Amino acid sequence: MIKFTLRIPEELHARLTVQAATDRRSLNSELLHLLEVALTAVSPETPDRLDGDTAT
After folding, report:
1. What pLDDT digit, counting tens, does each position of 12-28 carry?
2. pTM for this structure?
3. Cα separation of 42 and 24, whole Å?
4. Closest C-alpha among 38, 40, 22, 20 to residue 30
5. Which residue, among 44, 43, 48, 22, has the nearest Cα to 33 in the 3D structure?
6. Could you say which DSSP state residue 26 is in?
7. What does DSSP assign to residue 50?
8. For residue 46, what is the DSSP state?
9. Among candidate residues 56, 5, 1, 12, the one with its CA nearest the CA of residue 34
10. How far apart are CA 45 and CA 52, in angstroms?
């Protein structure tokens, strides 16, 4: 598992903390869940590269 620092606005942190408590998850687990859901929702036509370059 990779560990890194993420800086977010206090308001977003508060919203995430409330959502994590509502879902009975730790903040870390809630963030992982939300990232998984967001990445699963990405359409197959979306390029794999972050710079948008679809060239192979």
Report:
1. 999 999 999 999 999 99
2. 0.70
3. 26
4. 20
5. 22
6. -
7. T
8. S
9. 12
10. 11
